[in-house]
Design goal:
This protein is an alpha/beta fold. The protein has nine helices and 14 strands.
């Protein structure tokens, strides 16, 4: 029995030795370098088209630079600033009027409010109001001489001229940026569309005004894109038969005509708009807005006169409330 086992062992021994030698030789060979295999995109160029090989290596430097240049935002053209000059004076509805106007101005981009009080000093009411309004603004004041406060005489002349003087002084020693000037009385109602229209003013633009002159509206008459006359209920023979709320002027025009102001001497009632516009433009140069002056975007609403007949004179409220 032992002889049989020994004979089989010696028969298998050479084969065992051969296997051991082969394994030892294979472990001593150097491992081949690992090379990245190309990754084929599952998205073909077309049905049956070639597959695109995408390497897993890092991005190409040139491609990074091209991507960075594409991602850089293009500079946007500067939006012209609208300068709104608003004369105001102390009265029971003053804060209510200014609140309504401020609510409109907050929705207009790139607007600077120039609020000019008819007073010898800035009032606390208007100062507090502007501080809380959250608008870019300038607070000025200039009193109207007593001799010009008679009924029938033009109003707010000194206040509008103060706003013009501030604008010219502000841009006196610097390059004027694109801008538009608009006289925004505090007793009017303005559509937001109006500010979009006036922002493209090149020199002087015009449009209709509602609830003015004893009519539902007044407007410039336009033919072939040019103003040829006036639809108005009062003195259509005026050179510019237009309301103060019916035009805007380019800032560059204001700066190019430093002597253009609202006049007291020689200016008849209702003629201030014409006397001012005659100094800076002609009817032929006017730019019709609001769909060739066929849309009303501003109204002379004017707050109703307040009835304070029951306001006490002696037994006042113990709390002082600003109205």
């Amino acid at each position: 029995m032992k002889s049989v086992l020994f004979s089989r062992f010696f028969i298998l021994l050479p084969w065992i030795l051969i296997v051991i030698i082969m394994l030892d030789v294979d472990t001593r060979r150097p491992a081949p370098p690992l090379t990245p295999r190309p990754y084929f995109s599952p998205y073909a160029v077309g049905r049956g088209g070639p597959r695109l090989s995408l390497r897993r290596a890092g991005p190409v430097r040139g491609a990074e630079k091209r991507n960075e240049s594409r991602q850089q935002p293009q500079p946007q053209p500067q939006l012209p600033t609208i300068y709104a000059i608003t004369p105001t004076y102390s009265r029971p509805v003053q804060k209510a009027e200014l609140t309504r106007l401020a609510n409109t101005f907050r929705q207009v981009a790139q607007l600077h409010w120039i609020l000019v009080e008819d007073a010898a000093a800035r009032s606390e009411l208007v100062s507090r109001f502007l501080a809380r309004a959250g608008l870019p603004s300038t607070h000025l004041h200039v009193p109207t001489p007593r001799r010009y406060k008679r009924p029938g005489l033009p109003r707010a002349t000194e206040q509008r001229n103060a706003g013009l003087a501030w604008l010219r002084q502000r841009h006196q020693h610097q390059r004027a940026q694109p801008g538009v000037l608009f006289f925004a009385d505090d007793d009017n109602t303005y559509s937001l569309e109006l500010f979009q229209e006036m922002r493209t003013t090149r020199k002087v633009s015009v449009w209709p005004v509602g609830l003015v002159g004893g009519r539902r509206y007044e407007r410039p008459l336009v033919e072939n894109g040019k103003v040829v006359g006036w639809y108005t209920g009062w003195r259509a023979d005026r050179p510019f038969a237009i309301d103060m709320a019916g035009f805007a002027v380019s800032l560059q025009v204001i700066l190019s005509n430093p002597k253009a102001v609202f006049k007291r001497r020689g200016s008849q009632p209702g003629m201030q708009e014409s006397d001012f516009l005659k100094q800076i433009t002609t009817v032929e140069e006017l730019e019709p807005k609001a769909n060739n002056c066929t849309k009303v975007l501003v109204w002379h609403t004017r707050t109703e006169k307040v009835n304070l007949a029951n306001e006490p004179k002696y037994h006042l409220d113990t709390v002082k409330i600003e109205v």
